[in-house]
User: Fold this.
Amino acid sequence: MADILLIEDDVAIRSALSRGLRELGHAVSSSPTAFEGLRLAVDDRPDLIVLDLGLPDLDGVELLRMLRAVSRVPVIVATARDGDSEMVPVLDAGADDYVVKPYSAAQLDARIRAVLRRAGAEPAAEPLRVGGLRVDPRARAATLDGQELDLTPREFDVLHYLATRSGEVVSKRQLLTEVWQLPYGGADKTVDVHLSWLRRKLGETAAEPRYLHTVRGVGVKLAEPS
Amino acid sequence: MADILLIEDDVAIRSALSRGLRELGHAVSSSPTAFEGLRLAVDDRPDLIVLDLGLPDLDGVELLRMLRAVSRVPVIVATARDGDSEMVPVLDAGADDYVVKPYSAAQLDARIRAVLRRAGAEPAAEPLRVGGLRVDPRARAATLDGQELDLTPREFDVLHYLATRSGEVVSKRQLLTEVWQLPYGGADKTVDVHLSWLRRKLGETAAEPRYLHTVRGVGVKLAEPS
DNA sequence: ATGCCTGGTTAAGGCGATGATAAGAGCGCA
DNA sequence: TGCGCTCTTATCATCGCCTTAACCAGGCAT
Assistant:
């Protein structure tokens, strides 16, 4: 599934997680120390790193910053402390996610998949094109037939999400969880509102769609006008 | 003269060189181990590193590669071996120069000056242009429509950073870590203040931007006025 | 045909992000 | 050691965006 580097000093946890993750299909290398871990991170270039905070030889945040200096490899931090406040500096230092001990390999696997999914979706820094529509993630700007569109952040996110899946039907639920990052709770009228605003700015109506097509009972899709 | 980091395990050589280089006007920090040295390289960002190959805890070439992963800081390698063939992999790994033991502080100083001269001359310090804005890293000066702008050091750094990424949205967090070199800690009001000052000196307001556009919820971007 | 359900639009309020200013701290330089 | 320039921090005003709510319009099933 993925190359995982596990940096964890407790030998029991380390071997248990290694075994567990391997059974779930990952390739796992591990290190009991920060420095050795850093070396492995540089040499082996794992797809993802699981980093325990309570290392003996170096503060976890410190190591995290060094890792970040070296690469943008996703890092999941594991910690015994459970206060959320403890996690703020860690996340600020560039961690992608965290788990609180005790945690199982299966739990960790779920996080790993989520983080990798997110990370994998990212490197789309190239402008996207759908017909006369151009969506540029780097500039966070969109143009329609050369005309710059004045979009709000959320509108841009929605358009961008649809543009990366142009031609594909996307459910509102999907938008809510992916764009809004909300656990789907039914309050999806907000999505409707934003789609409406988008349509207006795209110069079209729901009755006369050009790019943004409603698929009744399913969702919406972004497609080239025919 | 320069911030030098000396990574050398032999205590006699280390202290002798430290003293010698200090007398020649350099600021010297040092480490007897590779890992500690790496940490200092990341944290202190020296102007140049002098690296001994015969370290106890990690192969020199290995460390060199890790250093290169972290930064492009010039590295002079010191070695006891005298065969030139030994040096090929070292130079391939990204060393800028090397000296063979035994060597004096004065000798080293000459190398240091040569490397820094080369390194300092090199970085494509071409003036950047964004519309009527010109940012000259070499002179650390900027002009707007031919008019020289009176910028403070920090203001210039911010403008320069944005100019190298013109058209791209840059987050405040990014500015804080890249320009201020701070581990993001949330104190990003400072960034706002500097942006505000920049805007004033660019003759624009946030409400009527010409070059410096805020992208709400994300950051700012420098772009040509339309 | 009619009522329900899905989807669309509009309006209004609250919240959070941003912008500007001023005061204080730090620092280098004289 | 003192002065002045910069940078930082704090505060407040402002503005834009998102959400919520209410209402409207079609289509589909009964």
The first helix of chain A runs from residue 11 to 23. The helical segments of chain A are 11-23, 34-44, 60-70, 84-92, 105-121, 153-163, 172-178, 189-201. The longest strand of chain A covers residues 3-7. Chain A touches chain B at residues 35, 38-39, 42-43, 58, 61-62, 65-66, 69-71, 89, 92-93, 138-140, 148, 152-153 (CB under 8 Å).
